[in-house]
Amino acid sequence: MKDLTHTVLTLLLSTLSLAQTLNIPTRSGSIISLSQPSTITGSVDYGNKEFDRGRACNTDDDTGSESAVFILENGASISNVIIGANQLEGIHCKGACTLTNVWFRDVCEDAISALGTGNVLIQGGGAAAAKDKVVQHNGRGTVTIRNFTVDGAGKLYRSCGDCTNNGGPRNVVVENVRVKGMTSDLVGINSNYGDTATVSGSCGASKRVCQEYKGVTKGSGSSSKVDSTANCLGSQGKLSKLPAC
């Protein structure tokens, strides 16, 4: 009984710690389970409503936009929304988009996928339990991640290592991000495609701040790490690790 009580207490404290770290707002109303992705045009403020797709995360494969909770058309903005745990894909941006105070309780494949041409701004919000990446960048342009919190992830950001018609440049700007429990590098970029990463004002635990790769096209092998840090920029881009928060 003592061991069971200790286990329950540990899980409870872990859950409370996670919530406190992310500061996820109190959900407004009941969880809304969507039967298909919700496509967003213009600007939508959800007032902290929570959405999912009613399906448990049972695969790490890329299941495409049909599995997303939200699809943002070029130029769309979404704010003050919580993505619940029962989904395979979070938010897919088809071009330029803005995400403000978007929270992910439990990331499945990726939380945010930048798929088109245009700049993506992610400001505020946070993500938990991303087994692989939080942000996947397949398109072209600059992804800015500002004042974001991560509790448990492989990477914060990765420019696609082996996409169809892969190339660049892709750029990422990371500002004032807090990370905890990151098992790999903060950001990964393809230096052979001219990608850049600019990191500043961030803190927490990760293996490396910026890791460069050699990107490949789909079917041409695997993307591999390279030793260069020439494209790792900003006051923290070349650091071996972030300072503690």
From TrEMBL:
Primary location recorded for the protein, binned into one broad class: secreted
Catalyzed chemical reaction(s): Eliminative cleavage of (1->4)-alpha-D-galacturonan to give oligosaccharides with 4-deoxy-alpha-D-galact-4-enuronosyl groups at their non-reducing ends
InterPro entries assigned: Pectate_lyase_PlyH/PlyE-like, Pectin_lyas_fold, Pectin_lyase_fold/virulence
Keywords in alphabetical order: Calcium, Lyase, Secreted, Signal
Transmembrane segments: none
Keyword Iron-sulfur: no
GO molecular function, one term: pectate lyase activity
One GO BP: pectin catabolic process
Enzyme Commission code(s) on record: 4.2.2.2
Signal peptide: 1-19
Gene Ontology terms: cellular component: extracellular region
Recorded family membership: Belongs to the polysaccharide lyase 3 family.
Function of the protein: Pectinolytic enzyme consist of four classes of enzymes: pectin lyase, polygalacturonase, pectin methylesterase and rhamnogalacturonase. Among pectinolytic enzymes, pectin lyase is the most important in depolymerization of pectin, since it cleaves internal glycosidic bonds of highly methylated pectins. Favors pectate, the anion, over pectin, the methyl ester.
Protein name, per record: Pectate lyase
Organism in which the protein naturally occurs: Patellaria atrata CBS 101060
Lineage of source species: Eukaryota, Fungi, Dikarya, Ascomycota, Pezizomycotina
